[in-house]
Q: What sequence folds into this?
């Protein structure tokens, strides 16, 4: 077990101290114990390193809002321990961390296994919606539905102790860290970068996985140059728990035969003897420009030109309102309304919502009040959804509307309460 500073991850080692290091990364809502049944065999060959996500399994609740930040925190932990090169196997969110490491720090990763993983996990809206539910109802609804997402029905019925373990594991996770992990998955998308993954990779998926199924697995295999697919029969999303023997066998075979030699011998790591593997080299990055040359026509203006805020505005607009809402608005735009859609993206979202003076929670409070005052009930509906996504709780939205009743008028607030109540009920009710 580890003593865990704020920037490090709670971790443990199993196996011989002089063996090559193999890291196991867990899924969202789980702890390192999801790998317990792999440890006896894996630790015969490797020095197995397991870690908990922030706020999971009793780990300190220091949230990470991106997969990149989780990867950097893992590397900081490994650096303190003197681990420079390693194999990595990760499930779901743990798999996303593995891809991030292989893309950003390829010299550290000797071999990779991605289990129940995807280059993009669903849609950003789905994970932000899950954050709204947790913020409004706590983790209990997510915990109670975990077994049906993670296991096949037959396994869940036949293994009540494991089913209860799964529920309790999610229920005891820190809600803030869970929400931050949802935000990390919402923003994760490496589809365009898979070709730069230059290490031997095993992509493993349960045949019955309805969360990240064979379609996502095949996307990974098609995009990663040196990747192989393994489908585990009779397994759903948490394949290492449901089919431990099959998963263990696949991992042993992969890491025993596909472990790239370190680029230098200074790290002290030694790989298990294996047949030679033809290296897969990622394409070299484009050469960096020697200098940025200002346009000759207006040299005096080179330092004062403001970047176009449209792209930044579209990013903020999607994060606040959701992809589904924005896609619908853009799809309905025509020659008459297209310029207006561009205007609000560029100036309302790219300029005003992107200003640093207020956080998004505060901007949502101001926006809701202004919409009540103006009687703009249609916009109030989707900005109530936006306020939930920006971190306001239903109780805080209620207080905003009560405040607005005093300054904007009771009739206006009465109408606003009806709209907001319907939206909140819809957004915070867990799906059965």
A:
């Amino acid at each position: 077990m580890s003593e865990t500073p704020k920037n490090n991850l709670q971790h443990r080692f199993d196996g011989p101290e002089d063996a090559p290091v193999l890291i196991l990364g867990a899924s969202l809502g789980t702890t390192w114990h999801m790998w317990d049944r792999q440890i006896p065999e894996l630790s015969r060959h490797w020095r197995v390193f397991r870690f908990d996500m922030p706020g999971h399994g009793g780990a300190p609740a220091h949230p990470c809002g991106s997969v990149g930040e989780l990867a950097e925190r893992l590397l900081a932990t490994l650096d303190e321990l003197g681990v420079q090169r390693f194999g990595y196997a990760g499930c779901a969110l743990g798999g996303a961390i593995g891809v991030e490491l292989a893309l950003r720090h390829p010299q550290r990763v000797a071999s990779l296994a991605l289990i129940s993983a995807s280059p993009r996990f669903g849609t950003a809206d789905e994970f932000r919606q899950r954050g709204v539910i947790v913020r409004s109802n706590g983790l209990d609804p997510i915990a109670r539905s975990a077994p049906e997402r993670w296991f096949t029905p037959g396994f869940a019925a036949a293994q009540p102790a494991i089913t209860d373990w799964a529920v309790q594991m999610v229920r005891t996770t820190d809600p803030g860290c869970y929400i931050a992990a949802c935000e990390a998955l919402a923003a994760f998308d490496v589809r365009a970068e898979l070709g730069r993954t230059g290490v031997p990779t095993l992509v493993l998926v349960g045949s019955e996985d309805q969360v990240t199924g064979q379609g996502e697995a095949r996307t990974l295999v098609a995009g990663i140059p040196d990747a192989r697919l393994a489908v585990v029969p009779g397994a759903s999303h948490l394949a290492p728990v449901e089919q431990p023997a099959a998963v263990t066998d696949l991992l042993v075979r992969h890491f025993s035969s596909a472990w790239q030699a370190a680029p230098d011998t200074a790290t002290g790591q030694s790989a298990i003897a294996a047949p030679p593997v033809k290296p897969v080299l990622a394409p070299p990055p484009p050469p960096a420009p020697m200098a940025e040359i200002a346009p000759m026509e207006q040299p005096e203006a080179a330092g004062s030109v403001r970047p176009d805020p449209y792209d930044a505005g579209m990013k903020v607009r999607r994060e606040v309102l959701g992809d589904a809402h924005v896609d619908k608005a853009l799809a309905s735009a025509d020659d008459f309304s297209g310029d207006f859609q561009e205007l609000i993206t560029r100036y309302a979202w790219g300029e005003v919502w992107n200003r640093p003076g207020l956080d998004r929670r505060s901007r949502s409070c101001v926006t809701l009040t202004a919409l009540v005052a103006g009687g703009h009930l249609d916009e109030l509906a989707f900005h109530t959804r936006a306020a939930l996504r920006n971190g306001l709780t239903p109780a805080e939205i209620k207080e905003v509307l009560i405040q607005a009743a005093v300054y904007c008028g009771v009739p206006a607030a009465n109408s606003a309460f009806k709209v907001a109540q319907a939206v909140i009920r819809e957004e915070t009710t867990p799906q059965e």
Notes: Residues 410-428 form the longest helix (19 residues). Residues 265-302 have pLDDT under 50 and may be disordered.
